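Model it.
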Amino acid sequence: MRAAPLIAVGERIAGKIATRRIDQVAHEADAAIFCRGMTKSYGQVAALDHVSLSIRPNEFFTLLGPSGCGKTTLLRAIAGFTPLDSGEISAYGQRLDGLPPHKRPVNTVFQSYAVFPHMTVAQNIAFGLEMDRWPRRKINARVAEMLNLVQLSGMADRKPEQLSGGQQQRVAVARALAKSPRVLLLDEPLSALDLKLRLGMQLELKRLQRETGITFIFVTHDQREALTMSDRIAVMDHGQVLQVGSPEDIYERPALRFVADFIGEMNFLEAEALGGGRYRLAGGVELAGLEQGTVGSKVMLAIRPERVVGGPAGTGAITAVVDEMVYEGTDTTYYVILPDGERMRLREQNRDSARPRFATGDRIEISLPPASTRVLTA
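Modeled.
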């Protein structure tokens, strides 16, 4: 088998696609799923725009992005439900292009559960095995194993109408896992659940992935869900993969403004590079100790609200006025006005029952720790 080139992630910089290595998997045979140059258009809309990805064996990999970014199209292309205009897909070295869904070593869990309402829990799980003509003894053993895995052992004879939404989703996952796919595809499977059930199922799915060792590819638009569950995340927009990394990489070191803005909350401040890691903000304040930038270039400085440091006069670099404060239980968020009129946020954890440190109208000084401030050029 010929060696494949290093997989690259697209970054939209000055209207061009720049590439960089995103992981250590360089050969098709080493990847659970290997995608190269995938394109898919619907009329004039590019759902997938030359997407290349390498997904490692036994990892929980999440496709994250807003509605219409291409993440479900990518998942359906891997499953075989959506034909590509061009590009290649392989699973563990086996080319999948042109193979029908039932011949691919993957299985899919959909948003709507898709459990059969007229069948019991056990019958639902057994359905695919019966279609493959497994012996009854093996089917019964496998069903019992799956029921135990998803913690529904006492519910084998119940109908879906007797189950909660979270339990129905576990049945769908058990049915998909029963045939031991090498890759499990999950298309926003938790979006129909209420918040409490969704939080519980996030931990449940991560446990299942860890215990089975199967590669999970999970689609969601929920950033917190992605950060909670994933080993790695691919952030998508307009049919492109913008950045791939661990949850910590994506949150702490976003490569592009879209990624920084989509994941969590972020302050953005316009600045001009002065050289030597120094930048001048629009209001004339200068900051030092940041990443190097081309002298005279216009950039965005990005910092999370919880990383902004606020204090009394003489403790920071930028004078600001507290415009609004919002008590959020565990935290208090302060909205402050900078000298140039820009509004930014800083967040502090509430400790014990102490009152908030600042009040509306207070003049405070804030600083942006260099280690927490990203310099973004696109």
